Amino acid sequence: MKPENFPKDIQPRLIPDTKGELIYRCLGCGLEYGIEKLLYTCPKCGQVLLIYDKLFDRLKE
Prior knowledge:
Layout: E1 22-26, E2 32-34, E3 49-53
Antiparallel strand pairs: 1-2, 1-3
């Protein structure tokens, strides 16, 4: 279901705002890529990409 199919008054709450600094990180070679472009595999080595929050450690505080 698309967000626009929901009532207008709840649409702003359907998709949460991100609070971190999200990137793709390759599980094979470790290279990092911005998340502006949709990627599934690493352009360099072909391994799977993981969405990673560079500010993850702040959650421990």
